[in-house]
Write a structure and sequence with these properties.
The chain is α/β, with parallel strands linked by helices. It has 4 domains: 201 residues, P-loop containing nucleotide triphosphate hydrolases (Rossmann fold, 3-Layer(aba) Sandwich), CATH 3.40.50.300; 159 residues, P-loop containing nucleotide triphosphate hydrolases (Rossmann fold, 3-Layer(aba) Sandwich), CATH 3.40.50; 106 residues, Orthogonal Bundle (Arc Repressor Mutant, subunit A), CATH 1.10.10.10; 72 residues, HRDC domain (DNA polymerase, domain 1, Orthogonal Bundle), CATH 1.10.150. 46% of the residues lie in helices and 13% in strands. Helix 14 links the parallel strand 10 and strand 11. Bound molecules: adenosine-5'-diphosphate and zinc ion (ZN). The site of zinc ion has 8 residues, from helix 18 and helix 19.
């Protein structure tokens, strides 16, 4: 095992190989590392899973002194320290959850330079005692993780982050590296100003996540659709299901469990202990599904989340991208799946209407919702549309989204739109009654329901003029008109009303192109993404059996040590071991993710697991 002191003189690539067991740097990791090792400040923007941690962990090992990592995610510090310990890197943390003894030990280790990384909560850094402590040791660098928390306009604003500008004043010679996965160019500028990172070099990676397959489907029976997805494409996989309300979190978790899929709920209505326990289990055990409100997920760096499913429409593209980004940090194929329906639009518009805050705030919410709806209704490649939104142009189609894999038809929906809007126009005159989409569609389809006859709506000129489309298609028309602002909803019952723009369609001054869902909605598992870097070969049946044995070995080992399974080895590493079937420690050491420490610790055990299955069955 490399002793931490001999790494001080090592080249970053050597540290990458020996400690982390990886062959090559990704993206601009190497440039960032060299810049920080040389004492420069850096602002690093990389998508989730891009490999931000190594950007400060390797300089921490190469530069003299201890790297101080500021992170708001106290609950995850133990796991971060465990993951470093597993590769033989000495790390500790200081936060409010610790007992005084553990605290003193970490403080002493810091002062003596016996650790390489010290994790600190931002609020701790503001205290005089912490500052005095830092003055007593040698600081290699400051890493500011989740740096977007400094942004007052963002959703994760932490007031304690504002105080971090003092790092520069107090320790002007210590290099600082700020990292985030969420930043538009406006937030990026804000981070640089507020942290006084004015001379920092900016490293901005592409925000594309090629291994994530984006799919947005019309919502019919969302829980059943979800169940089918999990059974067909993700049996035994870990994943996150997002729901809007606590009640639907609970119901969905129960539904999945009742159908044989182990699922846990997570929302702000559960007591803190239950939440912490469920989060721990999700991180530690294999193949659990977390059903949660968006209260869950920040900083969850579980690498093998294989799917993120949304049962309700996210409020913004930013939120959607951040939540789906929690899938596939390990680079293996993963699914981002969203079921979206008319009711989502109605509900969200209503939430905006009744939200607190001034007009500007409500307009801002509406603009965010509109961008999200545009993503749902687009006939373009979803990835191209997403990246566009974040200011990244892409001219080619991705080959790994529902639009690319199973192109929807784009059809001229102008006449249909006119029929629907005229129906709304006619009903609109009966102000005393409330009519939603369902009633309008009944009229268009010529259904003489009780309500239709009661109001004499079967004698309207529009009655029965919409037979060319099925009910589901009409719902699609309503949804798309709502998405484009050509129709609006009002009040508690989702009453449809016209907007100023409706007149353009009714007056034939505007055509409306619509997305028609292809018959078969789910791309088959066999569909291989084109032109993306992350095509992973399916394991052969024999390799699958080995992989499963390695997984059980890993689960047992993780349990014994009280660490998350991925701290032992990532899925990607186990897959490669299963495929390559190394016969010696030397061969095993060539597998990506097997560094010196893990080889020494687990190498023999792995070879035994491999040999066990090799004999006659
Ligand atoms: P981020 O913090 O940017 O979301 P992480 O630092 O957690 O991402 O890295 C994501 C995953 O990629 C981790 O599992 C990490 O071990 C792995 N990884 C990072 N850099 C490399 C590399 N150069 N080669 C192989 N795997 C890497
Ligand atoms: Zn695409």
């Amino acid at each position: 095992m490399a002793s931490p002191t001999d790494l001080r003189t090592a080249d970053p690539v050597e540290v990458l190989r020996r400690v982390f067991g990886y062959d090559a740097f990704r993206g601009f990791q190497q440039e960032v590392i060299e810049h920080v090792v040389a004492g420069g400040d850096a602002l690093v923007l990389m998508p989730t899973g891009g490999g931000k941690s190594l950007c400060y962990q390797i300089p921490a090992l190469v530069r003299p002194g201890v790297a101080v990592v500021i992170s708001p995610l106290i609950a995850l510090m133990q796991d971060q320290v465990d993951a470093l310990t597993a590769v033989g890197v000495r790390a500790g943390f200081l936060n409010s959850t610790q007992d005084p003894d553990a605290r003193r030990r970490v403080e002493a280790a810091f002062v003596a330079g016996e650790i390489d990384l010290l994790y600190l909560a931002p609020e701790a850094l503001g205290t005089r005692s912490a500052q005095a402590l830092l003055d007593r040791g040698e600081i290699a660098l400051f890493a500011i993780d989740e740096a977007h928390c400094v942004s007052q306009w963002g959703h994760d604003f932490r007031p304690d982050y504002l105080a971090l500008s003092m790092l520069h004043e107090r320790w002007p010679d210590v290099p600082r590296i700020a990292l985030t996965a969420t930043a538009t160019s406006a937030t990026r500028a804000e981070i640089a100003t507020r942290l006084k990172l004015t001379d920092a070099r900016h490293f901005v990676a592409s925000f594309d996540r090629p291994n994530i397959q984006y799919r947005i489907v019309p919502k019919r029976e969302p829980r059943k659709q979800l169940l089918a997805l999990l059974r067909d494409e993700h049996p035994g996989d870990a994943g996150i299901v997002y729901c809007l309300s606590r009640a639907s979190v609970d119901k969905t978790a129960e539904f999945l469990t009742a159908n044989g899929i182990p699922a846990l709920p997570y929302h702000a209505g559960l007591d803190a202990a239950t939440r912490a326990r469920n989060q721990q289990r999700f991180l530690r055990e294999d193949g659990l599904v977390m059903v949660a409100t968006i209260a869950f997920g920040m900083g969850i760096d579980k690498p093998d989340v294989r799917f993120v499913a949304h049962l309700d429409l996210p409020k913004s593209v930013e939120g959607y991208y951040q939540e789906t980004g929690r899938a596939g940090r390990d680079g293996l194929p993963s699914t981002a799946w969203l079921a979206y329906g008319l009711q989502d639009v109605v509900q969200q518009r209503k939430m905006i209407e009744t939200s607190e805050g001034d007009l500007a705030h409500r307009r801002n919410l509406a603009a965010h919702l509109d961008a999200m709806l545009a993503l749902c209704e687009t006939v373009r490649c979803r990835r191209a549309q997403l990246l566009d939104y974040f200011g990244e142009r892409r001219t080619t189609e991705c080959g790994n989204c529902d639009t690319c894999l199973n192109p929807p038809e784009s059809w001229d929906g102008t006449v249909a739109a006119q029929k629907l809007l005229s129906t709304v126009f006619r009903l609109d005159r009966e102000r005393n009654q409330r009519f939603g989409a369902g009633h309008c569609i009944d009229i268009l389809l010529g259904r003489a329901t009780d309500k239709v006859t009661q109001y004499g709506h079967d004698s309207l000129t529009v009655f029965g003029i919409g037979g060319e489309l099925r009910e589901a298609e009409w719902r699609g028309v309503v949804r798309q008109l709502l998405a484009e602002g050509l129709l609006a909803v009002e009040g508690d019952y989702g009453t449809l009303v016209l907007t100023d723009a409706s007149a353009e369609v009714l007056g034939r001054r505007r055509t409306v192109m619509m997305r028609r869902e292809p018959e078969k909605v789910a791309p088959s598992r066999a569909a291989k993404p084109r032109g993306s870097a992350t095509v992973v070969a399916e394991l052969s049946p024999a390799a699958t059996a080995v992989f499963e044995r390695l997984r059980s070995w890993r689960a047992a080992t993780a349990k014994e040590q009280g660490v998350p399974a991925y701290v032992i080895f990532h899925d990607a590493t186990l897959r490669q071991i299963a495929t390559d079937a190394p016969a010696s420690l030397a061969e095993l050491s060539r597998v990506s993710g097997v560094g010196e420490n893990k080889l020494a610790k687990y190498g023999e055990q792995i070879l035994t697991v491999l040999a066990d299955g090799a004999g006659p069955a």
